[in-house]
Design brief:
Layout: E1 2-4, H1 8-16, E2 24-27, H2 40-46, E3 52-55, E4 58-62, E5 65-67, E6 72-75, E7 79-83, E8 93-96, E9 103-107, E10 110-112, E11 119-138, E12 143-145, E13 148-164, E14 170-173, E15 176-180, E16 183-186, E17 192-202, E18 205-208, E19 219-229, E20 232-235, E21 245-246, E22 251-255, E23 260-262, E24 274-278, E25 283-288, E26 292-298, E27 304-310, E28 316-318, E29 321-323, E30 331-337, E31 342-348, E32 357-365, E33 369-371, E34 375-378
Parallel strand pairs: 2-3, 3-6, 4-7, 5-8, 6-9, 7-10, 8-11, 9-11, 11-13, 13-14, 13-15, 13-16, 14-17, 15-17, 16-18, 17-19, 18-20, 19-21, 19-22, 20-23, 22-24
Antiparallel strand pairs: 1-30, 11-12, 25-26, 26-31, 27-30, 27-32, 28-29, 32-33, 32-34
Amino acid sequence: MAHRSTRALAAILAFVAPLTAQQTWIVDRAAGPDHDFTSLTAAIAAASSGDTIVMRSGSYVEGVIDVAIGVSIIGTGQVTLELNGGLAPTPGILVHDLGPQESFTIRNVDLGGLFAIPELRADRCDGTVAVHNASGLLGQLGVPEAMSLQFEDCAQVHVQGVFIRDNGVLSFNNSRGTVSSSVLEGDLGSAFALNDSDVTIDSCTITSGFGLFTLSAPLLVNGGTARISRSAVTVNDPNAMISAIDTAGSGTVFLDPTTTLTPGAGFPPVGTSLTVIQGELPTLFVNSGATTLDLSLQASVGQLFVTLLSFQSSVLPLPWGDLWVNADAHIALHVGSLIQRVDSLQLQTVGLPPGLTAVVQTVLFDGDFSLSNGTAVIFP
């Protein structure tokens, strides 16, 4: 049975207190009461690292958005960025050169464009990059469309609750991260591509193809490692001559028993050039609501565990893996032992400032140490 800290909320609030002095900027396209700017571009130009930008509901026509500092962008209501005047170049949002103690986060903001796929790209980021609750949407028309997310040379990426469709793609290049609770639907090509990256995939639906047109596997692993739990990877056309997971070279795929793979008829679930390891994977899913923080840990029965949270994170190599929480400044949210594969916890989080970003990770012990994936929390 899990033992839970009754002082967790008090500890969080005490830990957060010195962080609340950062500036919060209000962006309102309609220039409503108490707004600071009518565009995101202007708000970013004024912001300093650690600030929060709250965007009120509306469709914002923006140019190319260049971000070289750690900021949190939080949408309230329905917020859509129509990039480059609606033309949506590649990339529409470029996040780059973040330091190891900086974080860029964006939550509840959809991306739109008329003549090209809107894209958020992060390059050369040693800090945290988190994208939560986003999809492609033509803001003025309200029509779903494609969207792409690309991460290049990023140390710690967190993607949660995104919807990528049509010819959009989620790609990791020489990066590490977690993708959870997302729907990735490819049309002609793959919806998800890993290149020399280490990524945990949890509670996702990944598909490719429509009708007779299926040209690529839903998930490509070209070097590096994919760890997949509680997910479904499906080739939509049962007659397609394609595996559910494939590669143009080599790589490693860890498969938890909770994952299902559906290839084309007669094809192996995983391409033969990939190394496949099957077994129980420790995975952590965390979701923050308006007043609660929900945690779901899946690991082997009988394991002792402690789930840690920190507000400034760095990737620290340890003998049993990479610790993503701050080893010198963290709190224990959840301590115990697993009597079943999944253990859940809900904490009340009233009073936390919007845009606050934390990293949560579980350390497990069953004769040896191991680590779950790290996952980011963006408080609304």
